């Protein structure tokens, strides 16, 4: 993290941060000292506006949206224009992130690796992801113009309401909501785009309700 100018570390039910841990941190011990520790995933992400899950296991079908992954090169430069907190979620060393945890993230990131040995050591995965972001952060504008957590929640709420109003099949709703979340996660809409979408969605809901 220190190598690539990242300093805010969040840990969920970590092992004991003992003397060996601090010795290995060398000149980055301040990151460990300042780390925030939580007992649950939900508690840890409560104040994060944009979440990036990481996993080596991706979907092989576009119809399975949960693990429909992007690659580091696809992480748009607009990521640094978000006016809020961005979190990169790395899973457990042995079996990574759970599906329920990935579903709460905006996008899922996968580092391209050999099919013969796709899993990376956790520390190596962190280094590769942070390196790719560090490079992009040095060439982007700092203008803040991207929607935050509250706007996203409203957008998803309106989309769910549209599905409800058109009597969208109940058994398809969950996958369709995840699909929409992934589309918005990849697009990272600006505030202008958000307000335009909300205006369209609001009008659709209004018309659908008057026809009932």
Describe the protein in words.
The structure is a single chain. The chain has 212 residues and is mostly helical. Among the domains are: 1-42, no CATH class; 149-210, no CATH class. It has eight helices and five strands, in the order βααβαββαβαααα. Helix 6 packs antiparallel against helix 7 (170-187) and helix 6 packs parallel to helix 8 (191-210). The radius of gyration is 19 Å and the shape is elongated.
Runs with pLDDT <50, length 5+? none
Strand order of the largest sheet: 4-3-5
- What integer is the average pLDDT? 88
Cα-atom radius of gyration: 19 Å
Number of beta-strand segments: 5
Percent range for β-strand residues? 5-15%
Shape: elongated
Alpha plus pi helix count: 8
Indicate the multimeric state.
Answer: single chain
Order of helices and strands: EHHEHEEHEHHHH
How far is it from the N-terminal to the C-terminal residue, by CA? Answer: 55 Å
Largest sheet geometry: 3 strands, parallel
Structural class call reads mainly alpha
**Share of helix among residues?**
40-55%
Task: List its salient traits.
single chain, 212 residues, mainly alpha, 3-stranded parallel β-sheet, two-stranded parallel ribbon, 8 helices, 43% helix, 8% strand, elongated
